[in-house]
Design goal:
six-stranded antiparallel β-sheet; 5% helix; 46% strand; globular
Length: 540
């Protein structure tokens, strides 16, 4: 998936459905043309350091910050697509698309690196794969693999990146190129300037995701090709052969494809094919669609034609899943991790973090994903926040059981926190929480259940969707049980709600005023008890 075109500085506007004002950029981002000359790595490093210092000074001068307290954020400038983290020397190496020239309006992204052991606290390692060092220009999405068997000839343990570049510009010049690292993924060299997978003459041909097929002793690539996910084979990561394609219409371009195997608690093994897709026109999410099924090394066969969705909110895009490993590096066949970009291309450049903190780019919390069997016999993915959060708890507020009939404002204030509760009732239409509620009660984010659906509603707070079309997200809910468990992660610019076992999750970007710190519980059409209500705050 492509990186951003830069941004022009612009005037700020006021407005939200609740009549709130906010410092948010307006208009469409404008881009300067990509420079033709090669950008030297020394110059790039200098620009990054300058931008970082300017961002720090801006945040200090303003006295206010919208930088997330416990979610990953880019140090400065811009980030978008996460790239699948790989395990190297006892820690995860997390690459992501980064534009050091965002504020100057210069187009294009590089791959920046951060490392982490617990998937909560990250250490910045700077740009690993720079842009504009070859005629290919900047780097888009792709994937890194550790070549333990030296199949590519760069040495056992070399880190190999397959990445989309567009030397001719535009969508009809997308081709796949190879970079490699012999220092553990810290720096990369290009494998020549020719593509390892040229464009066959199509408009969309990007986002290579490569896995090792140990059963058959070869590499498998999935590739975004408009409404098709293409499958390719390679013995050496350098030469690729097309073998098959999975086609699905109606949800836009199937971007950032994903393919993995996972084992359920009952021992059932499923292959999962995923992609970031835009289902808004069909009343579906704009996040990560996936199919469970089988894979014979060349052909993926889905259990059903319609996809399921790993997130039902508006802002969990370009997500990647990756292996769950223990401290020794052993892979857990029954679980994976996942991380997504908390933004959407409809309003990607509209965020107060630009002016308050000098950056634009926030990720979701890392999730642990498992495969579960539903009562009707079908299988689905379920996710919960990564367990590493438990090691970063700085404060716990245990509210116990709270009886509610109407609206009850709690004796708690906070900006960044997690709240968990189990709502129980005998007769009820709806119930939930008002998050980041203003002192006068006029602004808030609503999260809960109503009738036969769970929802997350950001209409009554400041957010980037000025069209008003994507304010409330829905997922199915069966009210007959008379109970629902909610786990909600609230941070300065995002809300993530996990419903019951995590089959349904809602992630949306929000920008509440920093003075909107209250928390309330509410019911509609009856009373309920919010049991075992606990709030946790984190320090990262």
């Amino acid at each position: 998936m492509p990186g951003t075109s830069g941004i022009s500085r612009r005037s700020l506007f006021a407005g939200s459905a609740a009549g709130a004002t906010a410092l948010l950029p307006t208009g469409t981002a404008t881009a300067a043309p990509k420079p033709k000359a090669t950008t030297k790595k020394e110059a790039t490093t200098k620009n990054e350091a300058k931008a970082k210092n300017e961002a720090k000074a801006k945040s200090t001068a303003s006295g206010a910050s919208y930088r997330s307290a416990y979610h990953f954020t880019v140090p400065d400038q811009w980030k978008n697509d996460p790239q699948r983290p790989v395990w190297i020397d006892g820690e995860y190496h997390y690459f992501y698309l980064y534009n050091a020239d965002y504020f100057t309006g210069v187009v294009g992204t590089a791959w920046r690196l951060a490392t982490t052991k617990d998937l909560v606290s990250f250490t910045d390692r700077g740009v690993a794969v720079p842009k504009d060092t070859t005629p290919g220009g900047d780097l888009w999405s792709g994937s890194a693999v550790v070549d333990t068997g030296n199949t590519a000839g760069f040495g056992a343990g070399a880190v190999v990146v397959l990445v989309t570049m567009s030397p001719g510009g535009g969508t009809d010049h997308q081709e796949q190129f190879l970079y490699y690292s012999t220092d553990g993924g810290l720096t990369f060299s290009n494998y020549g300037t020719d593509p390892v997978l040229p464009n066959p003459g199509v408009a969309d041909f990007r986002d290579p995701k490569v896995i090792r097929d140990e059963d058959r002793g070869r590499w498998v690539m999935t590739l975004a090709e408009n409404n098709k996910i293409g499958f390719y084979h390679s013995d050496d990561l350098k030469s690729w052969t097309y073998v098959h394609g999975f086609v699905h219409d109606g949800i836009g371009v199937l971007e950032c494809p994903d393919l993995f195997r996972i084992t359920a608690a009952d021992g059932t093994v499923k292959w999962v094919l995923g992609a970031s897709a835009n289902g808004k026109s069909a009343g579906l999410p704009n996040t990560y669609a996936y199919w469970t099924g089988s894979f014979d090394g060349s052909i993926f066969t889905a259990d059903t034609s319609d996809p399921q969705w790993l997130d039902h909110g508006w802002d969990w895009y370009a997500a990647v899943t990756f292996e769950k490993r223990d401290a020794s590096g052993a892979v857990d066949a029954a679980a994976r991790y996942a991380i997504g970009w908390v933004n959407a291309w409809d309003y990607a450049n509209t965020t107060p973090t630009i002016d308050c903190d000098g950056f634009n780019g926030t990720d979701s919390i890392v999730r642990e994903v498992t495969l579960k069997k539903a009562s009707e016999g079908t299988y689905h993915l379920a996710s919960q926040p990564v367990a590493g959060l438990d090691s970063h708890v700085s404060r716990t507020v245990n509210l116990g059981d709270v009886s509610v009939d109407g609206t009850k404002v709690l004796d708690y204030t906070g900006i960044s926190y997690e709240v968990t509760t189990e709502i129980t009732w005998s007769q009820l239409t709806g119930a939930g929480l008002q998050l980041r509620r203003s002192p006068d009660g006029g602004r808030h984010i609503d999260a809960g259940i109503y009738d036969n659906y769970a929802f997350l509603n950001r209409r009554n707070t400041v957010n980037a969707d000025t069209s008003g079309k994507w304010q409330e997200s829905h997922s199915p809910f069966d009210p007959s049980a008379g109970t629902v468990k909610l786990r909600i992660l609230v941070d300065r610019t995002s809300v993530e709600m996990f419903v019951d076992d995590g089959r349904y999750v809602h992630t949306s970007q929000v920008f509440p005023y920093l003075l909107d710190t209250r928390l309330a519980l509410f019911t509609i059409g009856g009373s309920a008890v919010f049991r075992n209500t606990v709030i946790r705050e984190f320090t990262v």
